[in-house]
Amino acid sequence: MIVTYNWLKEFVDFNFTVEELSHRLTMAGLEVDFLEKIGEGLDSVVVGHLLAVDPHPEADRLTLCKVDVGSEVLQIVCGASNHRLGDFVAVAQIGTVLPGDFKIKKSKIRGVESQGMLCSEKELGLALESEGILILPAGLSLGTSVFAALGLKDARFELGLTPNRPDCLSVVGVAREVAAMAGQSLRLPTPVLSESATASTTMTSVTIENAEFCPRYAARLIRGVKIGPSPQWLVRRLESVGQRSINNVVDVTNYVLMELGHPLHAFDFTLLRGGRIIVRPAAEGESFTTLDSQVRSLKSSDLMICDAVGPVALAGIMGGENSEIQPQTTDILLESAYFNPSAIRRTSKRLGMHTEASHRFERGADIDMVPLALDRAAALIVEVAGGAVLAGMIDAYPQPIEQRCITISDRRTRQILGIDLGLERIEQILTSIGLTVLPPAIEMEHNGILQVLIPTFRPDLEREIDLIEEVARLNGYDAIPETMPVSRLVNQRPSKRYQLAEKVRDLMVANGSAETINYAFINPNVWDKLGLAADDYRRNTVQVNNPLTEDQSVMRTSLLPSLIETAARNLSYRSRDLRLFELRPVFIPRPGEDLPDEPLRLALLLCGRRDPDGWAQGAEQVDFFDLKGIFEEIAEVLRVPQLRWQMDAGEPYLHPGKSAVVYSRKQRLGVLGEVHPQTLAAFAIESPLYVAEFDLEALLKVAGHFSGIKPLSRFPDLTRDSALLVAEEVSAARLFELFDKVKSKDAEELILFDLYRGKGIEPGQKSLAIRVRYRSPERTLTDEEVNKAHGKLVEMLCKELDAKIR
Q1: Closest among 632, 625, 673 to 650, alpha carbons compared
Q2: How far apart are the C-alpha atoms of 668 and 378, rounded to whole Å?
Q3: What is the DSSP string of 674-699?
Q4: CA distance linking residue 760 with residue 777, whole number of Å
């Protein structure tokens, strides 16, 4: 938003210097991004009078001018063609530095000496474009500064406003802030209209079909206008804030937009079919050509301004080519309306259109400014373009918006800001920016509470804290004392659950695995890929109400589908050696509860080579026992007691002969194994995968088992080896289980060091070679004692396992 120093002074009296005003605006939250002093350093550009305008002797398009600047007569070569003998002009004398760092020097142009330069408005920084040099009003004092003579010395402030301050998207809005700083009153424009005898309602009407998107729409009809160029004061005022002049009527609407912050639009009334206005949503797929000659495809969520036949403007954004003001226009219908910010923002973003009007409507215009802006524009149009305003304003306002009322207390203000201002000072600050403080009830006054009526130009004020912010802002942030924050340190130890999860995560990373983070939303069809039964509990999922896609329509009850999909994606990129894990919650619905249970799960996936590729590494591929070893390491670190493995996990997605369930005593901890070939095919994977999924909540229950501390024996150990012939179905786990039951007190450890099937072993049997370590904590064992103990142990194992000594 751009405002100028002189324009602000039209609405409020203040004595701040340009620099002081810039600082105060910034400290009040209206940050000045750029400050430009118009006319600064240009006092040497003076008023001159053309005494002679002769052709240049060596150039057809140049003129040789004699210019009286009061103190002397200068000879200047000029390339413009709009000057005549007797004109008053702006003369940049030798040594002047014009905007753009262009220094005027004495020079020769086509062999003729030139002692200065006749300037255009563009060269003086007064306009974006200009044709010819600046012709000044006759009678100005020769030799005086052009900027001083015309009152053009000014300062331009470019403000960086936050989106919550639409009230400052106007000169009046900024002037209101300046008035509060200076302790002065704000002067609003008071338009005076002379209306004709004909009532506007006899010529036109306004119908609002969607009051939610357009709560208010007002219009005036002006007949007999003459379209033409705007007067210089209007052109210069618009150009001072970065707006270019178009014609007198359009310029007035832009002027009022910048002055009052309310967008307006002028229609050529003769082009409105049926001579009336209808505000309605667009038809789905309807097309419309805007003023920039672009054809827009509309949706039913777009709001349109229509005549009796079809659209004539895209509400709150841009008018249409079919009703724009043209040189021959004589009758205009002037629109001033308020549109729903959300509706305008949605259409503006979808169509990629950002205009001065949409910028204000998106943030929230002032609905109470509608009639004032309309009358102000109508009065100015009559002033600069002639015509007559028909009697009466058409103001369609079906559902008037009530002003909000917010309370503010001095206690809460003191608590937030750390300063004691008192109710009187708080009231003074709030009323200075146009807020109304209602007469307090006796009880509220006793409790230090004010009731504040919020004007419609401040849609950002919604709560007490917003009012407290206004008090802090206008009282001055520098008035808030510097105090050390008062706080207390709380030593909160992480929960056992959190510590367990972090320890497992660290173990997995140390093991060389990479952690993956997948979406908690999955496609319900993945259960079919895993081959889960129709009544499997994992198919009972939490549904996502508004899923982005079908692939993310339910919450996962298992981590494995996402992990296998991640592996498939990596394998497709020829990344074949994978060690992945994910440690995240799953979501299990709870009957009768709104929120699901969210237990932690650990999923592992191995694929490819056991060791990284290299000259010193083998080419062995990972298998079931790599996965088993990883979990055994986790169980050892977490001190999980008495692991027990049961062959065949019973999961349809795992190979029945290469999978297992793991228990700690009777607590089921999870499953692991090789992925079934059918499941691999469903995920378009050709390489073998090994996966596991463990319940961390179950691990938490059994972790931390402490079996006590045993002192190290000072005596040597003795070992004995034996080979047992057992049936194929006898598991190693059964062997270790029996060892724990029947071992002697000096049997320290059982090691299974060989498994043999083949020559010399009958079908249906296998040979298990065991080594038992014996050691006493009290003395050195003799061979006889060890042989006796080992013989008893082997005898008991043979009896329980129906085994034979090989």
Answers
A1: 673
A2: 83
A3: EEPHHHHHHTT--S--EEEEEEHHHH
A4: 41
Helix, strand or coil, per DSSP, at residue 138: coil
Tell me the one-letter amino acid at 303: L
pLDDT of the residue at 443: 54
Q: Summarize the chain as % helix, strand, coil (round to 5).
A: 30, 30, 40
Written as one string, the DSSP assignment of 13-48 is -----HHHHHHHHHHTT-EEEEEEEETTT-TTEEEE
Please tell me whether residue 582 adopts helix, strand or coil conformation: strand
Element holding 442 (H helix, E strand):
helix 442-446
Q: How far is CA 262 from the centre of its chain?
A: 27
**3-state DSSP assignment of residue 337:** strand
> What pLDDT, in 10s, does the model give residues 221-233?
999 999 999 998 8
Question: Alpha-carbon distance 456 to 364, whole Å?
Answer: 9
Angle formed by the axes of helices 464-475 and 410-417, nearest 10°: 60
Give the E-state strand segments of 455-599 in sequence order: 514-515, 521-522, 554-555, 578-585
Residue 50, helix vs strand vs coil: strand
How many other C-beta atoms lie within 10 A of the C-beta of residue 38? Answer: 19
The secondary structure of residue 200, as a DSSP letter, is: G
Q: What angle do CA 27, 32, 38 make, to 5 degrees?
A: 130
pLDDT tens across 28-58, in order? 889 999 998 888 888 888 999 999 988 888 8
Residue from 730, 667, 725 nearest 700 by CA: 667
- The size of the chain, in residues, is 806
**Are the beta carbons of 733 and 782 closer than 8 angstroms?**
no
What DSSP designation does 290 have? B
pTM equals 0.64
Going by C-alpha positions, the residue among 168, 196, 211 that lies closest to residue 29 is 168
Strand locations in 302-373 (E): 303-306, 311-314, 318-319, 332-338
Residue 413 contacts residue 421 (beta carbons within 8 Å):
yes
Alpha carbons within 13 angstroms on the beta-carbon side of residue 12 total 25
The model's confidence at residue 806, banded by pLDDT at 50, 70 and 90, is confident
Q: How far apart are the first and last CA of the chain?
A: 97
Compute the radius of gyration of the chain from its Cα atoms. 44
